[in-house]
Design brief:
metal-binding; disulfide bond; 4 domains; 7-stranded beta/alpha barrel; 10-stranded antiparallel β-sheet; Immunoglobulin-like; zinc; alpha+beta; globular; Beta-galactosidase, Chain A, domain 5
Amino acid sequence: MICHTHDDVGWLKTVDEYYMGANSSIQLAGVQYILDSVMPALEAKPERKFIYVEQAFFRIWWSQQDAAMKARVRKLVADGQLTFVEGGDVMPDEANPTFSDWVDALTRGQRFLLDEFGPEASVASSQVLWQIDPFGHSRTVALAAALGGANIGVLGRIDYQDMAHRESTKRMEFVWKTSPSLASMGPTADLFTLKTFNGYGPPDGFCFDVVCDAPPIQADPLLEDVNIKERADAFVAAAKNWASVYTSNNVMMTMGSDFQYQAANMWFKNLDLLMGYIQDNAAAYGVDIFYSTPQNYAAPALKRYVRSNSAYLRLSRQLEAAAMAASPSGPVGSTDGLWDAVSVLQHHDAVAGTEKQHVANDYAKQLYIGHAHADALTSDALARLTERSYSGLVFDQCRQANVSICAATQGVPARDGPGVVVVLYNQLATATSVWHRLPVDSTEWAVVNATSAPVPAQIVVNPPPLPGRPTASKYTLVFHAADLPPMGYATFFLVPASSAAPAATLAARADGPPNPVGNAHFELTFRSDGLLAAYTDKARGRTTKLVQRLAYYNASAGGEQPHPPVLNEFQASGAYIFRPNSSALFSTGHAAGADISVQNGPFGVEILQRFSDWAYQQIFVYAGELAPTVEYTIGPVPIADADGKEVVTVFASELDSGANWHSDANAREMIARRRNYRATWQLNCTQAIACNYVPVNTAMYLEDDAARLTLVTDRSNGGSSMASGELELMIHRRLLFDDARGVGEALNETGITGNGLIIRARHMFHVGSPESGADFQRPAVARITYEPTAFFAPLTGTPAEWAVAHRTAWSGLSAPFPPNVFLQTLQLLDPTTVLLRLSHRYALGESAKWSRPATVNTTGLFTAFSITAWTELALTANQPVANLRSRFVWNSSGGPEAAVASPLHSAVNRASPFRPSPHRPDRGYGTGPSVELLPMETRTFELVVEWKHEA
């Protein structure tokens, strides 16, 4: 009997409304009352047990308790009555977060448990992957859980056809082989997983809470309506029915649901009576029943905002650690608020987009507030790093640069004043070069570097400003920031044009297709109707026919049934369910093509394709870039015809890919996909489009023997390949009907003008050889996800004078990382402790050059500190990695999803050691300063450091 509550950290109500129990007209739910109610109910009887997941809520409640209550709760935890499972701030979504964000969200909660309840409670939480409500499941998430110490994964929602197949074949329990790249490490990446029988609720008729209507258990013969035997019979029958689909004879009865146990005593009092009667008649019933925990069982716009804030959190942590060397007290400010907000946004009703609109607005507000708190830290940290004599210089940022608004660069007339300082920070551990874009209101600007030498730059005219953005700049200045140092910055100066610094060239504008256009690496040609026609890979001299367009599906409007029992013709498309009303794609404009114009400058070309007044895109082709970037602007999506619309970008090539394509799983390994196919059951595809859509977090590709077409995205999208050689990504949705899955609203977001939401997104597309595809994709994903961040300050004096008083360049590394290693985390834990997490970027076999073990030598690597001691930790940094030797090893039948070959208690070999790679002994920093990483491996370390303070 697993007593639990599922407390969405935002859904129909905001996070604060759910915690307080406010806005009850929407939902009767108050988390503070759940926790207030559960604690004394557990204290009443020592055999009672309860599990809790969402640390975002628990931390608020904990902060409001006095010392006496905290002591009582600590005792409940120590006695095993209150157990935390999963341990993260939220129950994260699995389709949208990147691997890095997922790990970071779990780390936030599990470190809190470690600090407040000690290692046993934190370790216990990480032993369970409790994913009972997310909408589908990812093997990369299962891998993260396994590497964090999980012994069991519990899933609540899977495809209904998959569920029927598993029930009929008794495959509700299996050992998930989560990473082909880490197969050499034995069971390290395996996770015993089970699918719950009834979602995460109790059997029908056994819900006992203020929001339930089940009859109470009546066992007192002095009162009427005694029903104890009838209720016990019904419960045992339900348990045996559940057990019939499992291999194991241990059945997890989930006793709880959304925001339940607000009256915990109602639950426990009825369960005590029910369990007592069944236990007294155990022989007759043939069952054993007891309180337990999972540990005992197994001993579109918000998406981009989340990702950009996650990247900024990484940057802020790096600067915070670096600034400790410049000042013993460190920089002013904190990243905790942003960490909280980014962690909460990984919730399966947040980044997934299945919350009410006012909740989505609140999520965005929390990210904004967290970002603002981190701004104070990054500004002060940069001041301490740049100023040779610290004076508290304030650096600004331009959060609306994507819509051509930047007060720092627009507010300074080009002919007056000395100009603007632009500090570009590169958070990657390898050097990078970018064409950086600055909104400006004049063409009389130049860019110079720290030696006052001119920097390659050009100016382009912006498209008309978006509705509600009257202050958008007229121009964009694009300059080349070459070789930005790894985990460091370089300084540039936006200065009035002069003979010493000539004005950036204004690109020449012309209408019509620009044939051809390209650089040293690729070339694009366009059709007479304005659409892309072909892509030439210059390195191989190979041209591939490639047509790209913007289109949309009409959305299903559903029917009369408000809650259809199955997915059928009555089902509307909505926040939860993608359901076009046909397989037909419609043009976003009146014609099939696009009006096209081009701006051609000395360093790059920008092509504007206008499909309609609500759908246009710009393709950027700049010198040295390996692939073009396309930036879409979509919206407001028109609904005057009373049709909802699902807007997609489609790339149709001549590649003979058949039914196959690949997409990434949480920005890590690529998953092979096949149209109208599932690997573990016979698919009956009743919706030709929807059943072939999958999550695309950062990249997707298709290929034939001669070439590979790759798309790289700046946020999570849905994507598919609906025909051979064709890739499509959904980039916007505007719908008019609720899909009747709980949120109670149509997905009809509005923008700042009150009209439909306008989104702007970026993709990169590339055609090259299949063998070199990963060598383009992996760095491209890093660049688009962790692009350099610009910080601005007024220029006082000349650039040369600034360079005397400031450090114009700095790197936190004495040498760059190998290209196949990703600096996933560098985080200050306390004044002498740093958390370091390193990941191998490449999967096994995808790159001839980089899919091999990588080594990082940490001796003298970090310029801000020296490492004096180190401990390798589990993935979520809550326990030493040595503890993972005690993870269970399961007997199974083999394969990527292996059936459990024997019942639970005999399936697990409790004495089996944790087995690392057979070609490498169990590791740790004790043997030396070098860190070795296998393809797709991630390793986490806690470092004790000494800061290299400057004299």
